[in-house]
Amino acid sequence: MSVKISIIENNLFFAEGLKYALSDYFTLKGRTVEFFAEEKSNATVDLVFIAQSESGNMTYCDRDVHETSVSPLYIAIRKIKLSQATKEKACSRELGVLDCHTGIEALFHLLDDKLWRMSVISAAARPCYFCLSRRLSGREKEVVSYLRLGVTQTQAAKYMHLSVKTVHTYKQSVMRKLNFRKRNDLFNWLLKE
Prior knowledge:
Elements: E1 2-8, H1 12-28, E2 32-36, E3 47-51, E4 73-78, E5 94-99, H2 104-114, H3 117-121, H4 129-133, H5 138-148, H6 153-160, H7 164-177, H8 183-192
Helix pairs in contact: 5-7, 6-7
């Protein structure tokens, strides 16, 4: 039986090393591995290793669901030191977090410990509570779209026929849902999207 894996990581050396380690692990388990360059390729992947954003926990339930309505499971790759990381709640599709500074034994332990969840969770295609609580409302999306265009909060309030304080509240709600602590984090995200 084959396991389809996608690695979404900018550090190509780390990604290649991870591929070798995963090939060794699954060979020992009697399974073959297929690697796909992108998560959104036409093939349905089983497992995605993805670099964790600076903002912390990510929502995976809303990511690309294929025709089979089976979503992959995720392992976040953490780049900051454990003392800096704050791990409160996480998406139910996140199997765990791999610290990029740990050894191959930590990867194997994580896979041994969590891989049994693949068959249980991948059957469920509905979003988990964590991801639902992070979805933006229609008004929040509207505020974000104005901010993305470079419109000030005062101008956005005028266009939306709301008070400036209400627009500010929507912006704060977006920042809380996306786990941004500073305005610069929000604006950097707006520029990337």
